[in-house]
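The record is given unchanged here:
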Amino acid sequence: MLVKSCCGFISGLTLLVAQSAMAQSVTLPAGRLQGVTQGDVSSFKGIPFAAPPVGPNRWRAPQPIAPWQGVLDAGKFGPDCAQPSSPFGASGNPAGTSEDCLTLNIWRPARVKAGQKLPVMVWIYGGGFVVGSGAQPGYDGSQFARQGVILVTFNYRLGRFGFFAHPALSAEHPDEPKGNFALLDQIEALRWVRKNIAALGGDPRNVTIFGESAGGVSVHNLLTSPMAKGLFHKAIIQSGGGRDGTLTARPLAKDNTDPNYQISAETIGRNFATRYGIAGEGAAALAQLRALSPDQVIDGGQETAGANGPRTYSGPIMDGRVIVETAQTAYLHGRQAKVPLMIGSNSAEVPAGFVAGATKQSLFDSFGKGKPEAIAAYDPDGSADLALLSAQINTDRVWAEPARLTARAFTEAGSTAFVYRFGYVADSMKDRFKLGAPHASEIDYVFDNVKARYGAALTAQDQSVARLMNRYWANFAKTGRPDGPGLPNWPRFTIAGQEIMDIQADGKAVGGPNATRARLDANELADGQVIPR
């Protein structure tokens, strides 16, 4: 009989693979798993990696739990983490959403030899830290498994469950890290991988973390967090920025004059408590906060107490333990993990929003002292289309130039760096996305899941680009270089050459000097301008 139980793992025990023709059954320190094999891929889903973060564990670092009895049915996903309804985070997960959500999922080749050590990739989903799921169909790891890579996805707490501070919480368990529960979940998942992945044929000494948008921001945080040291060996950042101001961390307790984050996380926590009539800063107030229903904590996804009300959601927090400094500060001083890096962005991330401007004049004014260089780079003859110009400036300011800053920092520190620009749009979507490849559109290609996305509209060119991207990503996980037999050469980034791999609008992969270098230079001159959160 298969038994489903909420439980976790005990460290320090030897991991064993149960030998069977299809290698479906795996024994871990916490108990046995029964996965599912379909063709040449086996999967194990809904594996708990920490105790349920409910009751007294709400707003605590992940806690260990006891082994389960019997065999855990790992044939289906666990529930997504509690979150507001959103088409961007919707996964169609039949298990729904729950505050009890800390599970992970694994795809591997169906036949794994005893003692085999396959490279491991751990995916961190995006969604602005407020929506998302490791169970989304686009994150299916089957194609990575077919390339001899073990793919891991997992859930981490979102929104106010994932980032929350309050004086009463700070006083409780003073030895534990506070505030960044989403990032602590990510670190705990990586610890689980380090201690358990050998049982599934994975190499705990060859782990690549990768993520997109908020997942990419998470990778920045893990690269610069003392608590994540040694848990991974390579990193890929997809559209994750890199400079201060976009999903970077605010201070825990002290209000300040930072133009991006003037209000501390504890002040925001007090604002949220006041919204529900909870006063005080002691244990009684914390008990009342923990007694709120999940829907009350989610609060409809609102980040303020009503329109133009006081802020009630903090996002990432500079807590001094998980996040000790912003990624930009760490990079400028060479304090990041010294690992191989892939980083890049898409050609038209967002049409507007971060760098707002209703006219060309207002867009160029945002460059400050870099305005003359910006005009020369973007609109030398005055004929640039306003919509395209806005998309290019937003893309370069928020994603492409910070990616270059990051690649330069890694290169200067002696690490290898590879930069990309993804500009391909599926043939069936070219009329809709005329400005270029939008935010997150590369993910289906990276996972080679475009058939599931586009169905009957899929073309041979779409599939070709997906196979190319999936091979580059898998190769990087295997060797620290995306190059491989039969692939266009992807040049290593250098300070002098600033080389990139350009996945062009026609699907061709062209490696060489960055054709948008002058645009990025103008945005670097504009550094210091406030990018609204």
